[in-house]
Every structure is written in structure tokens, then in C-alpha cells.
Amino acid sequence: MSTKPHHLAIIMDGNRRWARARRLPDLAGHRAGARALELLLPAVAGTPIQTLTLFGFSAANWQRSRFELDHLMDLVEQQLERCTATCVRERILVEVIGRKDRLPTSLLHAIDRIERATGNGRRRLRLALDYSSRDAILDAARNLPPDASQALFEARLGSAAEVDLLIRTGREQRLSDFLLWESAFA
Question: Of the residues 13, 130, 164, 177, which is catalytic?
Fold first, then answer.
């Protein structure tokens, strides 16, 4: 096994706590977290990391206020637009994983634009939006034949390579329903 990570997964957590500690509105924390992505993408270019998976929005986050949800969806859309040129230049293929049926139409269009624009990328940026690992595992397991192989299950799961390194920003030490299958040996 290589000691150099090829698949890095990050649970972007603690944005509201960061803002509150600085007596800023919660939304300022979300904006600061989104800006970190702009710094992260070029930094990954000089590493062996081939896949970067970011937990951008959990399926459990729908419990937040309508105001915060609208802001988060707008922020993701704006960030996708801002990162497109960098991803094209750095040859980073962008794909969004998770449910898309609950996302706003304008965000779906932004996702489609960046996925098409970056389709020739050599490295991958996977953004988990409205994502639940448990739901993804259940969906993949449905209708599998009794003798299904692990490879078939992983193909249905749509998983990337196993996660080598999992980072959670903020203070919490839990997986929060993120890449449970892929992170088994991270």
C-alpha cells in the first residue's frame, strides 16, 4: 500500500462555529469555507492526489432554515462558476454525487455546465451535494443479484477509489454519513 494519498476526502465542517467565534454571521463562515476551495484546487495539482471528494452539503442539512438553505445553494452555484476556469486549466474533471432531484434548477444548470466543461480532466473533483452514504449504499444494493461481486456493488455505488486520507475540518470526529464504504480503511 502506498503511503501517498491518491484519494483525499474532506468533510467541510465548522464554518458556522468559525463565524460565531469571530462574532460574524453564519453566512460569513459558509463564504469563507467556499473560498478555501479556490486555494485548495491549485495546491492539489503538485501532489499525487488523483481524486478529491468534498462533502459540500449533507442530506441532513435540509433541516436548516430556508434563508440559510437558499444562501448555501446560491453559494455552491457561484463557487462552481468561479472554479470552472481553474478546473479546465488544471484538467480537473468535476462531478457531483448525491441526490439532484431536490437541488434548485439554476444549480442543476451550473452543475451541468461545469461537468461538461471539465469532461476531459485527468484528476477528479467530486462534490457531494444532498449526499447520504447510507442512501447511496441502499440504492446500490437494491436489485443486486444474490451472487453479486464487490466490484459490481462498487460500480452501482458509483464509488471512486478507496479513500486514502479523510480530513474533517472543525472539531467534530465523526463521518457524518460521508463515504462510509470508500472510507473503510482511510
Answer: 13
Active site residue 13: yes
* pTM of the predicted model as reported, rounded to 2 decimal places: 0.90
pLDDT, tens digit (0-9, with 9 covering 90-100), for 113-130:
999 999 999 999 999 999
Q: In angstroms, rounded to a whole number, what is the distance separating the alpha carbons of residues 168 and 13?
A: 6
**Mean of the per-residue pLDDT values of the chain:** 91
**Beta strands across the sheet bearing 7-11:** 92-97, 123-131, 51-58, 7-11, 165-168
What is the b/e burial string over 75-94, where b = at least 16 CB atoms within 10 angstroms of the residue's CB?
Answer: bbbebbeebbebbbebebbb
Give the Cα separation of 16 and 148 in Å (integer).
Answer: 43
Beta-carbon contacts of residue 162 (< 8 Å; ≥ 6 apart): 7, 182, 183, 184, 185, 186
Q: Band the pLDDT of 48: cuts 50, 70, 90.
A: very high
